[in-house]
Design brief:
Layout lengths: L6 E4 L2 E4 H18 L22 E5 L5 E5 H6 L10 E2 L2 E6 L6 E4 L5 E4 L18 H9 L8 H6 L14 H9 L1 H10 L9 E7 L6 E6 L4 E6 L3 E4 L2 E3 L1
Length: 242
């Protein structure tokens, strides 16, 4: 079989079509990488990068444009040591910080829905869900009621997001803190594709201590609290503390 060779002149040296093709592809690939844009059909094998052999490793782009793997814990450790209201950190949007800025509370960026407070709608949760400021404790008490099947609190507690699984239904005072920061929080939520708080009413995890069939809610339309029947539906947002 006759071998066909297509050649071109490089100075006085003749170069085969195969060599020319390799040269052309090398230049093209170099251009694409420098432009930070590359399209690949099929599989691309990377030979000089750490292997992601567990679920905690993520692929990230380094400052020089190259790819590398980073452990989720390492990325979390890179977060600021001091926080401010409006930061997108710790799994959501920071809406409250303490005096030193090291601890605070975070809002999950999406609504949990419009839900009933609980299927246990005419009993107290052993007086353990009366706290106006400890939403995590209230959430635990609501879920541990022996007749509990479903609640706004359980929907929050079952969620895992951003590497955190300690979300809960906020207590009444925590919703007050969220309301006080609503303007900047809604601005951040809009910028990151989350769901704004708006003027909705939201369930707290705080039961009324006088009427077993009612719990407290906070109305973001006028900034007031109100009692609602536990078998009624209300907005639900999950928060966590750090």
């Amino acid at each position: 079989m006759k071998k066909h060779v297509i050649s071109y002149m490089k100075g006085r040296q003749e170069v085969s079509f195969k060599t020319f093709l390799v040269f052309f592809l090398t230049l093209s690939f170099s251009y694409l990488v420098n432009a930070q844009h590359m399209e690949v059909e099929g599989k691309l094998k990377v030979t000089e990068m750490d292997v992601a052999n567990n679920e905690t490793l993520l692929v990230v782009k380094q400052s020089d444009g190259t790819l590398a793997t980073r452990d989720v814990a390492t990325l979390s450790a890179a977060e600021p040591s001091v926080y401010a209201v409006g930061d997108y950190a710790q799994g959501g949007v920071v809406f409250y910080v303490d005096a030193n800025g090291k601890h605070g509370k975070v809002l999950y960026i999406h609504s949990m829905g419009h839900l009933r407070w609980s299927n246990v709608d005419n009993e107290y949760n052993f007086e353990a869900a009366w706290s106006a400021k400890n939403g995590a404790g209230n959430t635990s008490a609501i879920i541990q009621h022996p007749n509990h099947i479903f609640s706004a609190a359980s929907v929050c507690a079952k969620m895992a997001y951003g590497g955190y699984d300690d979300w809960y239904l906020p207590a009444l005072n925590e919703l007050t803190q969220l309301y006080n920061s609503r303007t900047i929080v809604d601005q951040v939520l809009t910028s990151i594709g989350g769901e704004i708080l708006g003027t909705n009413g939201y369930w707290s995890s705080t039961e009324d201590n006088l009427q077993a069939n009612k719990a407290w809610a906070w109305k973001f339309g006028d900034g007031t609290s109100a009692l609602g029947f536990k078998d009624g539906f209300g907005g639900v947002r999950a928060i966590r503390s750090f």
